[in-house]
Amino acid sequence: MGIAAQSRWWQPRWWQRWRSSPLGHSLGRDRIAQVALAVLLLMALAAVFAPVLAPFDPYDPRSIDIMNSELPPAWVDDADPQFVLGTDAQGRDLLSAILYGLRVSLLIGLCAVMLQALIGITVGLSAGYLGGRVDVILMRAADIQLSYSTMMVAIIVLAVFRTAFGAQLYSDLAVLMLILVIGIAEWPQYARTVRASVLAEKQKEYIDAAQVLGYGRLRIMFRHILPNALSPVFVISTVQVANAIISEASLSFLGLGMPVNRPSLGSLISSGFEYVFSGSWWMTVIPGLVLVVLVLVVNVLGDWLRDVLNPRLYKGS
Amino acid sequence: MLSVRGLAKRFPLAGTRRWWRGDEGLAVHAVNGVDLEARRGEALCVVGESGCGKSTLARLVARLIDPSAGEIHLDDQRIDTLHGRELWPLRQRVQMIFQNPYASLNPRMTVQQTLLEPVRLHRSSLSQSEAQEHIEQVMRSVGVDPSWGARYPHEFSGGQRQRISIARALSVSPELVIADEPISALDVSIQAQVLNVLMEAQASASLTYLFITHDLSVVEHFGDRVAVMYLGRICELAPARSLFSGARHPYTQALLSAIPRIRGQHQPQKLHGEVPTPVHSPSGCVFHGRCPLANARCREQIPVLRETQPGHTIACHAVEEGRD
Amino acid sequence: MALLEVRDLVVEFGLREGASMALDGISFALEPGERLGIVGESGAGKSVAAFSILNLLSAPGYIASGQIIFDGVDLASLSESALRTVRGRRIGMIFQDPMMTLNPVLSIGEQMLECLRAHSNCSESEARHICIERLRQVQIPSPEQRLRQYPHELSGGMRQRVIIAIALLLDPQLIIADEPTTALDVTIQAEIMQLLRELCDNEGVALLLITHDLGVVAQLTHRTMVLYAGRVVEQAETAALIRAPRHPYTRGLLDALPERTEPGRPLNQIPGSMPGLQSMPSGCAFHPRCNLARARCQSESPALQHGVACWEAAC
Predict the structure, then answer these.
(1) For position B209, what pLDDT does the model report?
(2) Cα–Cα dist C196/C209, whole Å
């Protein structure tokens, strides 16, 4: 017996249980997943503690001096060592801007996915369990939603909103709007996944048993079916977080996302893009790299999670 | 206690309906006019081969699915017309045990939660500690150690899980228990344990069983009366003793001769042909295509159940005419 | 000389927690034309035994030690390509679920021809002729038409007959049948059993039958071996084993059958359940469930002596 139940003070019970679960066991052996998880945690911590870590506050106009604009990163000649990753066209410290931008991007990504999951799980659960007409109506609605691309919906909604309510209100509500638009545009992914897994669970005898015991529909749906239908939801959630981050970046790049004075990774890439040809590559390349790494580690973790949670792929060893 | 009259269930085949021509399309006639009565305290067994409609019958009586025709009565109450909230009192009286012990328990609920949930809902007058005491008593009665309460189903073997399922059904103190192949997924030595638990529960709580199985040797041991089903119909209904000593329907005889006994060479009666699909039910007697005694009348006229001896009824023209 | 002789076969499963023994040194021999039944409950290792003979174990299972001598050759030491000439050709296999064995997108004829072509170089028309002959032999009506049909067009019983026909295709000397009738209805089971018995008698093929059903074993085999937790607990002529079982486990299994007890009386049950691979008891693996167990049974594992492995029964 390899992992004996020796109790040591530095190995509390929950740690041992995690280590012996399929998830913990597989993570212990998968180098790539370990690295991805470490990078993701590092980025998340950096984003959360951005106000502490960042040398400047990019939201504070007083800390910005136009004389410092377009300074290259510290390792390039004639740089100012004060700005490790250089500055942008307005003289903002790029490192600080990226830390704050990461914060906005992650916030929008996570909240949008939570919204997607909330709508999608409710719809998928109702469609799968109730079946019949409810199923037909809800799933056709999902099909219609899917036939518009996310970007198209987002562009139209955001553009209309901006013309209708003005740029000032728009920039105040930008985070909320992006969450709503990306959240609503992508719920069918969840609805379809949840419906498929509800249909599979519904066939099982414990659901028959619950019906024979007289449990109400809501109780059966939320207490009995839902907890057993969630593992694919975790898998697609990772992919969806990555997609939501990309959507936000794309919209910001197109000028429909975060305003320039409250940077996200997308709007940083966008505002730096104009200066690429004048030699100031760092303004767009560095936030671009951060975005690529972020999306990559999330997707790697998603792949790993799918392999572990998929019972057909999971083998005893 | 339980009485079923002319019960039928059709499952429409998807894609065969032509509503614009008023054509209802093809349907699987899973249960096709079944009359059955179970007396209080008896074990009524329904046997038959796969596809004969015995599980559909169980699900109809448990009100998991709605019948296409016919009536189901429990004592004096008609139950096939009840829906939703009206079924609530019935749910406490009629319970079901399922075939697959690996699918019949919610994998994310502990044994404790699984057993406590029905008690809380159906007997809300009980206090927390009374409910707890009640389920511990039920657990002990089916040989489940109450200390297992905090564990999850995947930690148990098939036999233990089946006991937990039985405990869940018994926790609301039902009168009628429908058991759909409760032991066929278990090992031989475990089958005996579970059968004993079911028999003890019957004796101590004066339960009525509707016991669905394909295993005739279990029926012989367990059943008071036996109904043999073929293609959605009952072909013979008799007390277990008289069925095993003197089955007269040709299908029952073939079924009995096919049991692999451990003693003596058996000479199974061969049935020619195969079970027809329940989509295109044969005309007349459903068994005529494979029956060695079939004649022209069998091909045209549907036989009805007639009593040949007290309590022993058979649906067969050949037996009726004395051709067997 | 025995057709198949298995000596001290040990099969292990390499699990996360370390290797555990699925088969703990089993030995048996099978004469040409003999029918041997391996009986056991799920987890006893009976299917592992069947699969290990042709080295079809899938990871994490592997043969740790022992010999499997088939017609003078040790199959355990053969290479994968050498094994392929034995599989299907000299040893046929029948599995529990015919739908798992037959390829759903190929017709019956294509599957049979493929098998025939892989092992012999006969002409198209010859091969067709052999296939039809085999299908007729397993009593499939109108075999010429069946060749064009697909597995889903056949009933369960017919599919199992096709499987048997494929197993017989190349005149094997041994057929290994793993629960061949478990998925079938009783009337079909009776027909398949009769067919297997007749085929083995007429063709002189040996049969290794793996099942949990003592009734099937009683009707079909000459000799029976009872497995419990990866060990042989009893081995005897089938008739003698049924009449006078010597190991307490065999006795318990037989007594647990409903036909052995007066209707309505409690059945004789064996308490407890089979131990898992990870929690094998010391000494005799059956001792926690045995009503004859003594101190010695807990500490020392009994060896198979005169056909029975039990301290109480051996003397």
Answers:
(1) 95
(2) 10
Query: What domains sit in chain A, N to C, each tagged with a CATH number?
Result: 39-309 (1.10.3720.10)
Q: Which residues on chain A place their C-beta less than 8 Å from a C-beta of chain C?
A: 1-3, 25, 315-317
C244 found inside a domain: yes
Determine contact: C21 vs chain B, CB below 8 A: no
Per-residue pLDDT at A4: 42
Closest CA to B303 of B255, B225, B236, B227: B236
pTM equals 0.84
Q: What is the pLDDT of residue A315?
A: 37
Q: How many whole angstroms separate alpha carbon C24 and alpha carbon A298?
A: 46
* Residue in C with minimal Cα distance to B254: C187
**Residue C106's closest CA among C162, C59, C52?**
C162
Q: How many domains does chain C have?
A: 1
Q: Which site among B52, B160, B187 would you substitute to test the C interface, given the most C Cβ atoms closer than 10 Å to its Cβ?
A: B187
Q: What CATH number does residue C14 fall under?
A: 3.40.50.300
Q: Report the alpha-carbon distance of residue C217 to residue C181 in Å, rounded.
A: 11
**CB within 8 Å: C59 and A2:** no
**Nearest residue in B to A211, CA atom:** B64
Asked whether the bond before C143 is cis by omega within 30 degrees of 0, the reply is no
Locus of tokens 């990226």: A98
- Domain that includes residue C56, residue range: 4-90+170-262+269-314
- Residue B211's pLDDT band (cuts 50, 70, 90): very high
The interface predicted TM-score of the complex, written ipTM, equals: 0.85
Q: Is the pLDDT of residue B270 over 50?
A: yes
Average pLDDT of chain B is 89
Q: How far is C226 from chain B (nearest CA, A)?
A: 13
Chain B residues with CB-CB distance to C186 below 8 A: 49, 214, 216, 255, 258-260
pLDDT at position C17 is: 67
The whole-angstrom distance between residue A21's C-alpha and the CA centroid of its chain comes to 25
**Is the CB of A22 inside 8 Å of chain B's CB atoms?**
no
- B-chain CB neighbours of A200 within 8 Å are none
DSSP letter string over C26-53? EEEEE-TT-EEEEE--TTSSHHHHHHHH
